[in-house]
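Fill in residues.
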C-alpha cells in the first residue's frame, strides 16, 4: 500500500508493519521517515538491527537468510536494506520478490531506494514490495510549497512568524535562501530555535540569523522563466555561476525551454489544441500549468530573437571567435559576460514584450 508522508505518524501509532519501502531523493525527509520507522520498531521490540547495503557482488542469500531467521529467545530484528542505485539486478529482483513474500513476524524490514523512474516502479520486484508492505514516496518540497513548509517546521519548535504581510515576507525570505537545500533549511530553522525563544519571530530577527544556503538546480530555471519571477531568475543564475555550474549546460537548459515554447506557439497558431501540443512536447507536471500564461506573454518574434541571441551565446561560452553579425533577443549584441547574456535570454520569456530588463552586474 502507498502511504503519504504526513500520515506516517498516525500509521506507526498502531504498531509497525512487517515491510516498509521508502524511496525518493529528498534526503532529509527520507532520513526523518526512516527514523520514525526505526523508533516504532524499537518500541515494538524489534531491537536487533542489521543493515545491508547493495553493492557490486552483494550476497542476496545472506539477506534472505537474515529475514527468514526465527527468534526463540533473542530480540526481534529490524533489517534495513539500502539500494543506492535503485537497480537490484535480476538476482536482486528475485530476492526482493522472495523478501516480499516472507512475512516473518519476528522481522521488520526497511528498504530504502532513490527516486525511481516509471519503468522501475512497474517492475515485478517493486510491485511485489509495495503489494506486501507499506510504501512511502518522498517527493521534494517545491519552491511554491517551501514557505508553508518552513512555517510548519517553525511551529514544531514553538515559533511562528508575525501575522500578515510581515510574516509572509519573512517566510519568503527564508525560502529564497534555502531553496534546493532542504537539509540546510532544517539546520537554519533549528538555529532560529536556538537563538530566539518560543513565540513570534520578527522579520529583523530572521534576516539577521538566516544564511544564504540555497543550492539551485539548473533544470528548475524553466519554472522561474515561465512564471516571470525575475528576482528568482536572477538569484538562480547568480547561484549557479557561484557554484561553478557549466555555462554550456545552463545555456542548453534555457534554449531547450525557448525552443519548446516556440514549437507550441507555432502549433497553437496553426490551430492545434494546446493539450495535444503539450503531450507532443513532453510537457507535464508544474510546467503544464505555467506554459499557458507564458505563451500569452511572449510573442513568436521574441522567441525567435531569443534563439538568435542563444546562437551567439553558444559560440561565446564555447570560446569560439567570429560573429555572424546578427543581433540579440532585444536587438543588441550579447554582453561581454555570457552569464549576463543568459539572463537577457531568460528575460525574453520572463518579461515577454514588456520593458527591457534591468542591467546585471
Amino acid at each position: 500500500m502507498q502511504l503519504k508522508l504526513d500520515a506516517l505518524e498516525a500509521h506507526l501509532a498502531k504498531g509497525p508493519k512487517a515491510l516498509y519501502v521508502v524511496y525518493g531523493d529528498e534526503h532529509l525527509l527520507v532520513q526523518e521517515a526512516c527514523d520514525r520507522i526505526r523508533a516504532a520498531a524499537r518500541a515494538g521490540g524489534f531491537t536487533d538491527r542489521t543493515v545491508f547495503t547493495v553493492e557490486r557482488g552483494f550476497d542476496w542469500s545472506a539477506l534472505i537468510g537474515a529475514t527468514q531467521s526465527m527468534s526463540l529467545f533473542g530480540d526481534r530484528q529490524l533489517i534495513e536494506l539500502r539500494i543506492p542505485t535503485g537497480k537490484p539486478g535480476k538476482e536482486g529482483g528475485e530476492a526482493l520478490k522472495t523478501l516480499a513474500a516472507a512475512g516473518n513476524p519476528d522481522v521488520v524490514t526497511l528498504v530504502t531506494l532513490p527516486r525511481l523512474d516509471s519503468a522501475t516502479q512497474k517492475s515485478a520486484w517493486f510491485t511485489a514490495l509495495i503489494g506486501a508492505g507499506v510504501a512511502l514516496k518522498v517527493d521534494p518540497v517545491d519552491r511554491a510549497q517551501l514557505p508553508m513548509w518552513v512555517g510548519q517546521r517553525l511551529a514544531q519548535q514553538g515559533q511562528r512568524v508575525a501575522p500578515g504581510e510581515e510574516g509572509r515576507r519573512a517566510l519568503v525570505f527564508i525560502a529564497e535562501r534555502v531553496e534546493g537545500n532542504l537539509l540546510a533549511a532544517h539546520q537554519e530553522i533549528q538555529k532560529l530555535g536556538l537563538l530566539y525563544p518560543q513565540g513570534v519571530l520578527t522579520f529583523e530577527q530572521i534576516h539577521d540569523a538566516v544564511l544564504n544556503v540555497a543550492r539551485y538546480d539548473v533544470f528548475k530555471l524553466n519554472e522561474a522563466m515561465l512564471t516571470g519571477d525575475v528576482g528568482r531568475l536572477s538569484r538562480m543564475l547568480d547561484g549557479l555561476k557561484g557554484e561553478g555550474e557549466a555555462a554550456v549546460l545552463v545555456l542548453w537548459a534555457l534554449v531547450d525551454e525557448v525552443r519548446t515554447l516556440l514549437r507550441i506557439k507555432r502549433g497553437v497558431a496553426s490551430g492545434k489544441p494546446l493539450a495535444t501540443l503539450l503531450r507532443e512536447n513532453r510537457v507535464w507536471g508544474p510546467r503544464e500549468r505555467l506554459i499557458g500564461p507564458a505563451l500569452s506573454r511572449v510573442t513568436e518574434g521574441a522567441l525567435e530573437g531569443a534563439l538568435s541571441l542563444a546562437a551567439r551565446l553558444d559560440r561565446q561560452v564555447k570560446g569560439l571567435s567570429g560573429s555572424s553579425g546578427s543581433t540579440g533577443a532585444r536587438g543588441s549584441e550579447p554582453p561581454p559576460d555570457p552569464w549576463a547574456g543568459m539572463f537577457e535570454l531568460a528575460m525574453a520569456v520572463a518579461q515577454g514584450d514588456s520593458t527591457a530588463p534591468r542591467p546585471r552586474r
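Residues 218-350 form a domain with the Zinc Finger, Delta Prime; domain 3 fold (CATH 1.20.272.10).
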